[in-house]
Design goal:
Blueprint: E1 9-14, H1 15-28, E2 33-37, H2 39-43, H3 47-54, E3 62-65, H4 68-76, E4 82-85, H5 95-100, E5 103-106, H6 109-122, E6 129-131, H7 146-155, E7 164-166, H8 179-197, E8 204-208, H9 210-215, E9 223-224, H10 237-245, E10 257-262, E11 265-269, E12 274-275, E13 281-282, E14 287-292, E15 309-312, E16 315-318, E17 328-331, E18 343-350, E19 353-355, H11 357-363, H12 368-373, E20 380-384
Parallel strand pairs: 1-20, 2-3, 2-9, 3-4, 4-5, 5-6, 6-7, 7-8, 8-9
Antiparallel strand pairs: 1-10, 10-18, 11-14, 12-13, 14-17, 15-16, 18-19
Length: 385
């Protein structure tokens, strides 16, 4: 039996934080059916690990994914409840829908026809969800297209009618003015009314992303689709502000993910020494650097060069020079007692200090979603209490 090896780069996932966030969302939405998004490798947390944590949670009825490959991975990792595929599928890629009992979101009539034919051939019923275009102008169908889709549903008994009707808000996170969100919601209700008139009334209506689920009860309908809030992050500062201005509590969510690495070399530099590619940092005094084995390949953005800091022994160690593909240099001049393989916190708490995903996003001129989604799937993920 091989001895356990020391990890040099790993992510920790808190089971307690995940359960807390789901309970908070369930309380906000009065226990509505919940479809948790695990697309983009579960927002960088690790699809396999998050599915293992969610599969026995009675609050979670669905997983939502972007691709058929992600949907299959959910099944292969033990998820037996519903899986909704939000993203596009190739027009001829209908077999996995029947084989694995997936529920695709529909916005292409040609795909729906192919699905209807395949369902008829195998004598199966398929649950589908129509994506309605209400103003995001991404995926979705216009109201004047609904009669053509209704004809397809009525033609194929295996389709019967759409099981769900959905939409996605364009501007519910980026502002405290939610007039456009209200316009989209009004449009959605109107289009669902048109569906009813065409004889294709949906069983489930779902519009609520994390921000909508948090802010607007009227968006909840029969099912909600939270994403980033499940993982302990507010969708935006504006969402947080809107919720707090309404009198909401401050401690709804707890970050699930921490990211850690180790010191793999300690270097002493003279004054006027350059650090890293491009010589973008120059020491002004005798300096001690620690090299850590994390770079932009692992998801630590190059735009954090000379901007961010990591935590070592509860102290801030600033990034010096450019972030490399697999390595980053940090300044430990003022941190006493640093040794090889000491733990380094990239995201998370160390002593009284914390580095948040939102801080990294600010330094990188990005958003928390991107920081999380770009975490390498090759990094080991450990489930902790």
């Amino acid at each position: 039996m091989m001895a356990k090896k020391t990890l040099l780069n790993w992510i920790e996932l808190s089971r307690a934080a995940l359960n807390n966030n789901i309970e908070s969302l369930s309380s906000l939405t009065n226990g509505k059916l919940m479809a948790v998004s695990v697309k983009a490798n579960a927002y960088g947390h690790g699809l396999k690990e998050i599915v293992s944590l969610l599969k026995d949670n009675p609050r979670v009825d669905y997983l939502t994914v972007h691709s058929v490959e992600e949907a299959i991975a959910c099944r292969e990792n033990g998820w037996q409840k519903s899986v909704m595929i939000l993203g596009p599928l190739a027009l001829d890629n209908v077999e996995p829908i029947l084989a694995y009992d997936f529920e695709p979101v529909i916005f292409n009539k040609s795909f729906l026809v192919n699905l209807g034919k395949m369902a008829a051939r195998h004598g199966k019923m398929v649950k589908t969800h129509l994506k309605l275009e209400t103003g995001t102008h991404r995926q979705g169908i216009r109201e004047d297209e609904l009669p053509g889709f209704a004809e397809v549903y009525k033609k194929y008994a295996g389709l019967k009618k759409p099981y769900g009707a959905s939409m996605h808000f364009a501007n519910i996170e980026d502002t405290t003015n939610h007039e456009y969100a209200q316009y989209q919601l009004t449009t959605f209700r109107k289009m669902v009314g048109a569906m009813v008139g065409l004889g294709i009334k949906p069983t489930l209506r779902h519009t609520a992303s994390s921000a909508a689920a948090i802010l607007f009860k009227k968006t909840h309908f029969e099912l909600v689709r939270p994403g980033i809030a499940v993982y302990g992050h507010w969708p935006s500062k504006e969402t947080y502000l809107s919720y707090r201005l309404k009198g909401g509590q401050n401690d709804l969510f707890r970050p699930v993910l921490s990211w850690k690495t180790r010191v793999t070399q300690i270097k002493r530099l003279d004054p006027d020494s350059f650090v890293g590619y491009g010589c973008t940092y120059r020491t002004t005094t005798a300096t001690r650097l620690a090299v850590v084995p994390v770079g932009y390949y692992e998801g630590y953005s190059r735009s954090l060069s000379n901007q961010a800091y990591v935590l070592i022994k509860g102290k801030r160690a600033p990034v010096r020079g450019r972030v490399c593909m697999n390595l980053t240099m940090v300044d430990i001049t003022d941190i006493k007692g640093v040794r090889l393989e000491d733990e380094v916190v990239i995201i998370g708490r160390n002593g009284q200090e914390t580095v948040t995903v939102e801080q990294l996003a600010t330094w990188a001129n990005s958003i928390n979603y991107e920081i999380l989604a770009r975490l390498s799937p090759h990094t080991s993920r450990l489930i902790v209490s």
